[in-house]
Amino acid sequence: MFTPRAIVVSVLIVAAALAAREPAHAFQYCPVAVDAVQALQFGASDAYRRAVDRRFGVELQLAQPRTASVELSMAAGGDIYRVTFPGLGFTGSDRAIVFFSFPHPKSVDYLWVSRVAEPQRDRSCPLDPFHASHDYFNDRTLSQADLGTRAAANARILAAARADAVSHPEFVARIHRDCPTPDQTPTLQHQVLPDGGDLRSLKGPTPVVAVVHVSPTGEPLDAELLQSSSLANLDSAVLASARASTYNPATIDCMPSTGTYLFKALFGT
């Protein structure tokens, strides 16, 4: 008689290296996402060869053409800054490019959209980090297609920078890394074991892997198959288990953050 058992591991996936859907798009609770960051002191191929800069350009994306005011937050040198860009027009490609500058050189560690105001809705967005670092811009693990996409976004930002005004972020808080684990991926709080039903047709150990999108409150907002068993009943059982289980959220600098959890189930004897 076969019995299911589940092996689960966790991993935080951020926009810089996300193979599946980006969290901001997957969760659907923040309509605007950071798509690219460019240090303006250098050319696209030289960005972040130095650790600090004063001027930055950011490409934002929205799911469909709209006008919105966007508050952008960033962590730089252990401090949190915010700047608001009113009345951005997302048209055509559904992109908008904005620029900000610090009075002194800063190293920007990560950015996220913290608030979006539209004519019919005003919403706060959770920490969903887009890492902006030397390592990000020189990530050799990216595919040629991803590198090409990044280079094109950087080129768009540099071209737009010749005409657009630069805003100045305001300091809002100092980052206090005073929790036991400042940076961590989501963890499993309580696992609901999958029930695959009649497993007699299996010819050996059969793995199923789901990606669980976990909110900053630990809620499993969505789950999607990463590795299928090719058996509908097993795939459905794992997705149901992943959605019914409970999680502890990811944290960045001790602040609750979005994250993803790899939920792995191995069906066999």
Describe this structure in words.
By secondary structure, this protein is mainly beta. It folds into 2 domains: 3-13 and 181-268, TolA/TonB C-terminal domain (2-Layer Sandwich); 31-174, Immunoglobulin-like. Helices cover 14% and strands 46% of the residues. The longest helix is centred in the middle third of the chain and has 17 residues, at 144-160. The protein is elongated.
Structural class label = mainly beta
Number of helices: 4
Provide the residue-averaged pLDDT: 79
Query: In whole angstroms, how far apart are the ends?
Result: 7 Å
- Give the SSE order as H and E letters: EHEEEEEEEEHHEEEEHEEEE
Indicate the radius of gyration in whole angstroms: 21 Å
CATH topology of the largest domain: Immunoglobulin-like
**Share of helical residues:** 10-25%
How many β strands by DSSP? Answer: 17
CATH architecture of the largest domain: Sandwich
List low-pLDDT spans: 1-27
Shape: elongated
Number of domains: 2
- Percentage of residues in DSSP E strands: over 45%
List the helices and strands and how they pair.
Blueprint: E1 3-10, H1 23-27, E2 32-39, E3 53-62, E4 66-76, E5 79-90, E6 95-106, E7 108-118, E8 121-124, E9 130-131, H2 134-137, H3 144-160, E10 170-174, E11 187-190, E12 206-214, E13 220-227, H4 232-244, E14 246-248, E15 250-252, E16 255-257, E17 259-268
Antiparallel strand pairs: 1-17, 2-3, 3-6, 4-5, 4-7, 5-10, 7-8, 7-9, 11-14, 12-13, 12-17, 15-16
